[in-house]
Amino acid sequence: MSAPSEGSASYSRTPRTTPTRYKDRATWEQEAIHDILDHAYLCHLGFVADGAPVVLPTIYARVGGRLYVHGSTGSRPLRSASGDQGLPVCLTVTLVDALVLTKSAFNHSVNFRSVIAHGTAHQVTDPEELDVALAALVDHAIPGRSAEVRPPNARELAATAVLRLDLDEVSAKTREDGADDDPEDLDLPHWSGLIPVTTVHGTPEPAASTTVPLPAHLRGYLR
User: Fold this and answer.
1) Choosing a second label site near 10 at 20 to 30 A (CA), which of 17, 122, 155, 202?
2) How far apart are CA 182 and CA 64, in angstroms?
């Protein structure tokens, strides 16, 4: 089964994807949303179980206009999403770019890029689509990795489940401003400014059982 096409340049706005505060920081542009999704590692999947809210951190991957979310066959969201009705979810992804320090405690903030997606998730059961999804989940962190390792066997496939969430109701929100000191605070003798936040990847460290040289897809790995 193939993923939906990229579609138009922007996703449709809905009440759930339109923020009530700082609307100027929101965007529905596909390119901006996909860029955030492609650069983060983890998502948080929110749903209701037994009448109570639950939020689970997990890995995901984007294929076109669709997200695949990793899970276990024994987990609550996967059991709930296995039927035809699926599971209503809210999925979020956030990248932190800087800590924003100001001369007043109130104006401290964070520069960030975030995505919120609403929709109904369904468990992937088609074998062909499942192969695509599992490869994408591995390659999302390390491009090309799925072709360099042993594929999952029958026992591992039986223990692994994947949720599919189409990107229909989705938006991004960002803050990329400086330290917004109030005019009356500008002469205060306090430090204000930005502390950049970045993710740094170290040199790969081979396991004791590794006897092969570092593969090409891991050399000089940058995210």
Assistant:
1) 122
2) 43
